[in-house]
Design a protein that fits this description.
It is built from 13 helices and 6 strands. It has 316 residues and is α+β, with helices and mostly antiparallel strands. It has 2 domains: 244 residues, no CATH class; 69 residues, no CATH class. Strand 4 and strand 5 form a beta hairpin. Helix 7 packs across helix 9 and helix 9 packs parallel to helix 13. The two termini are 24 Å apart.
């Protein structure tokens, strides 16, 4: 996509655009440093076709650095929705606020970043993860289905008119984590170029501790389980394209073709949600559910391995 002659004008444009976006907004330079990197990585990963959406996702998101004055910075409803969810140990949390304006549903995103994040590399991952959620939910966010209103958050869809718990959250998180990994690794590929922009070079120091390829830290071991499937070139291409454009039903159709006769996409994502809950309980409570969770994981892994063995690229 770029070479030594074109990479510097590209990076200069990104730094200039981010600075212009936040010229009249209260945001620390340290957060802008992360945004230079994330914006660059997203464009390198998804292509210049989606550059307007990438800028829009970054620009229309509100960033709150620290949690001390949340009750003053948020509406009453927003603040109460965060109780027990955001603490001093929170790395980054995305608050989604849905409003209705002129009979049209609108959504506002706020990323809350806890202060004193000493691990800059980890904060880069968390911020990239949250902004990628927002980017991949930008188009076709709301759909009406009979009396229901479906809100799309990446691959995950939930009925905002119902209290029913929808399945698919963990699969969405796993895919988003794998995309986050790709974005950061695309950034690392810039090491082969000589970059002249001082602001970008200062921000790029955040990546100094990464030796070679970056591996995300969230949602293990489930990310490891899906990585081989996601890394199939046409699978990855289809997932990225449909999430960015909002036509994610194609993913369900593809995976339905690849799962065995006794399973389906909906069953798979539901099982993954349940398995993740048991995994978290096991981590908190020791060995109480370890055997059950291990058995579930092995059964689930065998099912995913079946998909890989039987995978035919032409179906994508």
């Amino acid at each position: 996509m770029f070479n030594q002659n074109t990479i510097n004008p590209f990076i200069d444009q990104i730094v200039y655009t981010i600075d212009s976006m936040f010229e009249n907004k209260e945001i620390p330079q340290s957060i802008k440093d992360y945004l230079y990197l994330i914006c660059t990585g997203m464009i390198l990963n998804y292509g210049t076709t989606y550059i307007k959406d990438i800028y829009k996702a970054i620009n229309e998101t509100r960033y709150i650095y620290g949690i001390k004055d949340l009750n003053k910075l948020l509406t009453k409803e927003e603040y109460h929705s965060l109780i027990n969810r955001v603490t001093e140990s929170t790395n980054a949390y995305t608050l989604s606020t849905v409003t209705k304006e002129d009979k049209e549903l609108k959504i506002k995103y706020t990323i809350i970043i806890a202060k004193n994040r000493n691990n800059k590399q980890q904060l880069l991952e968390y911020l990239t993860h949250e902004l990628n959620h927002i980017l991949t939910s930008l188009n076709n966010t709301f759909t009406h289905n009979n009396n229901s209103i479906l809100f799309r958050y990446g691959l995950f869809k939930t009925d905002i008119t119902s209290t029913k718990k929808d399945s698919g959250r963990i699969f969405n998180e796993v895919i988003n984590t794998l995309e986050t990994e790709d974005i950061i690794n695309k950034l690392l590929s810039l090491r082969k170029y000589k970059i002249y922009n001082n602001k970008f070079n200062e921000a790029f120091k955040i990546l100094d501790s990464i030796q070679e390829e970056y591996t995300a830290t969230g949602y293990e071991p489930f990310v490891n389980l899906y990585r081989p499937l996601f890394n199939k070139k046409d699978i990855k291409s289809l997932i990225n394209k449909t999430m960015l454009e909002g036509s994610t039903d194609q993913i369900e159709e593809l995976i339905n073709k690849k799962l065995n006769n006794n399973s389906s996409y909906s069953e798979m994502i539901s099982q993954l949600d349940e398995l993740y809950i048991n995994y978290e309980i096991t981590k908190r409570n020791g060995l109480e559910k370890a055997y059950e969770t291990s058995s579930q994981y092995l059964d689930f892994k065998n099912n995913i391995i079946y998909v890989l063995i039987d995978y035919k690229p032409d179906l994508a």
